[in-house]
Amino acid sequence: MRSLEVTTPWQEEDEDVEVDDMELSKNSRDEMSEESSSDEATGRKIARRRTGGSTTSGGSSSGSTTTRRRKTGISARERNLRRLESNERERMRMHSLNDAFEQLREVIPHIKMERKLSKIETLTLAKNYIMALTNVICEMRGEEKHYTFQDVSEERDPVDTVTTIQEINREQNNNSMFQENLEIPQENSLINSR
DNA sequence: TAGGCCATCTGGTCCT
DNA sequence: AGGACCAGATGGCCTA
Question: What GO MF terms are annotated (predicted)?
Answer without folding.
Answer: DNA-binding transcription factor activity, RNA polymerase II-specific; E-box binding; protein dimerization activity
